[in-house]
UniProtKB/TrEMBL annotation:
<keyword id="KW-0408">Iron</keyword>
<feature type="domain" description="ETF-QO/FixC ubiquinone-binding">
    <location>
        <begin position="260"/>
        <end position="355"/>
    </location>
</feature>
<keyword id="KW-0004">4Fe-4S</keyword>
<feature type="domain" description="ETF-QO/FixX C-terminal">
    <location>
        <begin position="499"/>
        <end position="602"/>
    </location>
</feature>
<dbReference type="GO" id="GO:0005743">
    <property type="term" value="C:mitochondrial inner membrane"/>
</dbReference>
<dbReference type="InterPro" id="IPR040156">
    <property type="entry name" value="ETF-QO"/>
</dbReference>
<dbReference type="InterPro" id="IPR036188">
    <property type="entry name" value="FAD/NAD-bd_sf"/>
</dbReference>
<dbReference type="InterPro" id="IPR007859">
    <property type="entry name" value="ETF-QO/FixX_C"/>
</dbReference>
<keyword id="KW-0813">Transport</keyword>
<keyword id="KW-0479">Metal-binding</keyword>
<keyword id="KW-0285">Flavoprotein</keyword>
<dbReference type="GO" id="GO:0004174">
    <property type="term" value="F:electron-transferring-flavoprotein dehydrogenase activity"/>
</dbReference>
<keyword id="KW-0411">Iron-sulfur</keyword>
<keyword id="KW-0274">FAD</keyword>
<keyword id="KW-0830">Ubiquinone</keyword>
<dbReference type="GO" id="GO:0051539">
    <property type="term" value="F:4 iron, 4 sulfur cluster binding"/>
</dbReference>
<comment type="function">
    <text>Accepts electrons from ETF and reduces ubiquinone.</text>
</comment>
Amino acid sequence: MSALMKVSRVNKLFTPIIVRSVSDSVKYPKITTHYTIHPREKDERWKGVNMERFIDEVDVVIVGGGPAGMSAAIRAKQLAAEQQKEIRVCVVEKAAEAGGHILSGAVVDPVSINELFPNWKELGAPLNTPVTKDSFSYLTDTGRISIPIFKGWPMDNHGNYVVRLGHLVKWLGEQAEALGVEIYPGCAASEVLFHKDGSVKGVATNDVGIAKDGSPKDTFARGMELHAKTTIFAEGCRGHLTKQIMRQFDLNEGSQHQTYGIGLKEVWEIQPEKHQPGLVEHTIGWPLDKHTYGGSFLYHLNEPTPTVAVGFVVGLDYQNPWLSPFQEFQRFKTHPKVREVFEGGNRIAYGARAINEGGFQSLPTKLTFPGGCLVGCSAGFLNVPKIKGSHYAMKSGMLAAESALESIMGEKQETTGYEPKSYPDKIKNSFIWKDLYKVRNVRPSFHNPLGLYGGMMLSGISIFLGGREPWTLKHAGLDNQSLKLASQCPQIVYPKPDNKISFDLLSSVALTGTNHEGDQPAHLTLHSDRTPLDHNWALYEGPEQRFCPAGVYEYVPNEEAGTMKLQINAQNCIHCKTCDIKDPKQNINWVVPEGGGGPAYNGM
């Protein structure tokens, strides 16, 4: 058998690989067994299996129990009570409890909760830490240069609160249940259902009892169907059903593509003398180069123990395939002006999540469709320079509920599914639209030959003008198309973790509380099992093993074929959606795992 010697990088070492002439089944072993790729109708093992679903009918189904979804549910029940009407409102949430999958180093503007619950203080809402001081800095290799924050500018947090967003969402869930909202935790929506006329009918929850090889177990149970007059999608950033809805109804026609970042976060208990409850710090600069967008946050919470939330955001339009957002975050903490905060402290939690960065230009042209609408981060309502979206999520959910009830209780519609047609106008007349328009040029201004320095200058002008400049900048290309070839970029060698300030990936994942049933098909599905080796490894040396913040993707030697192969450690997945966004060929598709699964951030 003929053989060819090839040099390949494995764990930053040069290892000789013998490339042999082998069959495709050996060179490209089957990775994906999920039924969304391999239909059960064509699988003999599924013949005779009962596929009937239980059906329940409600008035409003809300997919996702985050700030947007819970606010929509609460507002719907409030309005029904005001009108002395009885309606059923159901929230489908994949986390085991409300707030369980919420990750945010959050500084919350209370404008929306003031409207939803004017007496939130008396009700015990967990907004315990008013912002007392703001700091914004540019980091050099060893120093810190302060940047002034002017009143009313995006980085001004006067009047806001530092919160553990998961705690706030859990509290919202309690208020929703008190109003009669039906919340189904640990119950992931896996499929959009349609009426014969094409309007949305509701959703189906995921099946359980499927083995890793895709076959039915003895415990197989079909999910249930939830039919509704109106379905509100509040899945958060890059929701897998929202993607389908956007394609189905062409909601993005005429708008720019969405752009994204990945936010990584840790919670620490630090030494009491270093703790300053209400202090909010942000930085830009080191360790990222001038052409990589990103920065950090450090928030001091008023908790029983001296607690801080530290995080790092990297724009997913970065170009160097050797870059690891996780490693950049760990390196950031070793900066001499940052390290001192954590020395003597104890890291207690870790997590990561993709965030929208497209802003005003990337909002869907159509926010509604026959049978429903998009709210919160599903629609892209995030203010990039403020690094805030929770108050927009809550407000959009409230407006969607108002529109949904107007439709349901109004005149008969053209389609079976009720479309909340007044919702777009309500959004355009709200502070959401005004705020996002004002800062529309901040994020795209960083696409210039000077990178960070040009972006600071151009975005500063835009902020100074209050968004009144007579132009709207466009985003650069898609995030998944931004990578240069590995051979064209310098390899980044990251320092080893000291296990005091910086840590390795697997010990970090252990702090997420992530949990998936082991014997189930991987929910990170591949359209083609060939693409990882033929494209991602061949051109970029397997970037998914670096952009994933949880060690899900790993290239290991395929001894029989004399090549490499992709191994998916789906049990590590923390549902950040980065792979769904950054994969160069858009070959990876995130779908819900059995039973929802995923991290248990416990209010992080």
